[in-house]
Structure formats: structure tokens, C-alpha cells
Amino acid sequence: MKTEFTVAADEAGMTLAAVLRRHLPELAWSRAKRMCERGQVLLDGARLVDATVRLRARQTVKIDASAPAPHVGPRAPIVFEDPHVVVIDKPTGVSSVPYEERERGTAMDLVRDEWRRKAKKTGTKANDVALHVVHRIDKDTSGLLLFAKTKLAERALQTLFRAHDIERTYLCVVHGKLTDRRIETRLVTDRGDGLRGSTRKLKEGKRAVTHVRVVEEMPRVSLCEVRLETGKTHQIRIHLAEGGHPLVGERVYIRDYTEAGNEPIPCPRLLLHAATLGFVHPVTKKKISLSSPLPPDFDVELGRLRRK
Fold this sequence. Notes:
This protein is α+β, with helices and mostly antiparallel strands. The chain folds into 2 domains: 60 residues, RNA-binding S4 domain (Structural Genomics Hypothetical 15.5 Kd Protein In mrcA-pckA Intergenic Region, Chain A, Roll); 229 residues, Pseudouridine synthase (2-Layer Sandwich), CATH 3.30.2350. It is built from 7 helices and 15 strands.
């Protein structure tokens, strides 16, 4: 069995499982997926457990199946749960809630699927309580997402969000080099060209405040920690793009950057991850502090950018 190969130009955009099958036609689809989930496939030196990640030309794929690899399979989607709240580690490409009728595969579905798996494993009845939305993160953003399981918890958490008493930090990679900064603007749903953005009209829009700290500078990009003081739709993406530093992997707020003659760095995913979440429990009043490590696909792209 071939154990290492480079992704060809005509394979760019294909999934990891598809590229494995192309180079190793003797592999069944199920085995290719299982090898990924077991951590037996490395992409540019990082173990990648998601068989659906789309690859780029010239990336290196290595199979480490000669000895059993540590099981690093898909992260359990639920990272915290009690009778009142549940927190999920949402993958990129998954909607927080259904936006279209009968949309499946949302974060809410992942929670319910996990409940069913646990019930099947323990021989108990699956949880069927309602999930109440208290905040959202973008479909293309990965990381920590909070739901309430009771109306009491929903009301209490919504109050915390309105008062900006929820601690949230994100990790992101932006184009170029920037300095630590505090960004405050007023965001509107249409800045005049169909996109959300900032307005200079003080009586319009909603106040949005973002705190940015540079964690690591690389040749063409910067890894940043972002703390939200407010939480408006696409706030981080808009604020950084308007400052001339759009996120790597950005597809929407990139027009100003390209019209200025810049070439965006191609990336298969938006490099934005909800890394920490802290709140006072709505019932027990205890402080809950949660963190989520960078997912493998983000880590792979970060490693690639470090070598540029």
C-alpha cells in the first residue's frame, strides 16, 4: 500500500476520502473514512480525522496505518450538559439552527443525534427536551455554541447576552500584519451594496465593539485572539475586513480587499473558531468556563500558512 503522496492539481477541491480512494483504489469508502476517524491519515503532518475535508494541490497525505494509531476520532459534539443547558463544539459548515424548512444536519440535530447514541449505548430512552436558541455562530465558524434546555435557562441566558455578561473569545487568521486594537462601529444590515457593514450615521445601526489581540505574526498573515464585547451578526468578519484585514477563507466580506488590488489567500474553510465560552449558570449560579482546541482542519491550514 502506498503510504505517502502529494495532492495533484486536478485533485484540488476533492475530499480527503476521495483522494485516498483515487491513490488507493483497493480501499473501500468505509475503510477510507474509518482510517481518517482513527487518526491514521496525516495531512501536511497533522492528523486529520474528518474524511470530508477538501484538499489543496501540493498538500502531502501520509498514511500511518502500520501500527494502531491513537484513537482521535471525531470529537464528541457535546462538551457540557446538565438539566438546564447544553454546549456543543460545532464543526465548520454546520448551521447553528435550521434556516430553511426541513434543513437537516444543524447543530441542534447534532445534539439530538448524540442523545440518541448515548441512549442506545445505555439502553435508556433518548432525551426529547426542546432546545432553546440563546445565540448563534456563523455556519462557516467552528467552536462553542450554547443552547438552553428549559424556558427558565433561556430567559436567564438571554438576559446575560443582552447585558454582554457572556465571555467569548475567538481565534482567527487574518490577511496581513496588524496591531492590537479596539474596534467600535455601528453595524447596519445593508451598507448600501447589499452587505452588512458599518455606518457613520450615529442614529442608525447597532453598536458593536470588538477587541483584537495579535497572538502570532506569520509572513503573510496574523493569528489573532478576538474578544466580543457585543455580539452582532458577522461582527468579527466585518470589523476585520473593514480594517483591511479580512479573515483567511472569507467569501463574503472580501470585495473591498480585492478591489484594492490584493490577492486573497485561498483556503478551504473560514479560519474563525469560537475558542472559549464563559457564563454564570442560569440556575446554579456557578461560573462555567469552557474551551475548545483548534479543530484539525484549522490546524492544518495554520501549519501551511506558517511555512509560507
